[in-house]
Amino acid sequence: MKLGLWTVACTALIASSAAWAADGTAQVQGQSYSKSRAQVVQELEQAREQGLISVAAHGYPKVPQGPAKTRAQVVQELQEAQQAGLLDFADDEYPVLPAGSVHKTRQQVVQELEQARKQGRLLYVAP
């Protein structure tokens, strides 16, 4: 049964391909396309050469390159960026801020919390 179904599917595919190739046009969802495969491939190659197509792994778009930097220049730029705080860090590398010199007691924090609650600056404070 599977062999018969497979044969019917292949026959239908071949017949439909032959029908499309009859006049060189294809109809998809009511639209007619008249470009040949060679024309489409040529347009694709032109777009690749112009860097208009982004593709994975094989055939990256061509990017203009400037003068190469030395290792020392790259290391210097990295150190400057680190000192300026411009680099992102992973959670385990995140810089630890030094503790401030002002320390409050628990009692002082509770008093500030109560005062803020009385002034209406807090919506809810659990007792």
TrEMBL record:
It holds the Pfam family DUF4148. InterPro entries: DUF4148. Residues 1-21 form the signal peptide. Keywords: Signal. The keyword Signal applies. This is DUF4148 domain-containing protein. It comes from Alcaligenes phenolicus.
